[in-house]
Amino acid sequence: MRARTFAMTFGLIGALLTAPVVSAGTVTTIRIDVSFGGAETFTTTGVLLCPSGTAVSDPQFVAGSGAKGKGVATFHRVETLTCADGSGSFKLLVDAAANRTVGGTVGGFAVGRGTLDYVGLHGGGSLRSTPKPDGSGTIDVYTGMLTIVG
Fold first, then answer.
1. What burial class does residue 75 get, using C-beta atoms within 10 Å of its C-beta: 0-12 exposed, 13-18 middle, 19+ buried?
2. How confident is residue 58, by pLDDT bands cut at 50, 70 and 90?
3. Are strands 121-131 and 105-114 parallel, antiparallel or unpaired?
4. Rounded to two decimals, what is the model's pTM?
């Protein structure tokens, strides 16, 4: 009986020691300055991600928008963010809806594949986008709980 108890305890300790390390979820905000026809840049808050870098909007799928483009349009796209400090890159998988008569976009995001320091990055949250007053682009603010497993 003692041998079985010892074996179970030893096995449990071994499993705990070899389990992946998970950092607690960290509230993170990513702000992307979208310029229609120009370069996109981003900044972040929190300690998990690099402070800034460039963003690229991959092709997106858009559906809807109602009669004469005045309704709600849904879209799905991938944002690839590359850190200026060389620490890596990661993707945001975005699902959102834009109301063209009111302006602005709301939706959600999940973190996709990352490189270098961001290989185990995952999590998600919400998106709020507002048009720039001059119409040259939008300010996209992503807020969510992110973590790195590894």
1. middle
2. confident
3. antiparallel
4. 0.77
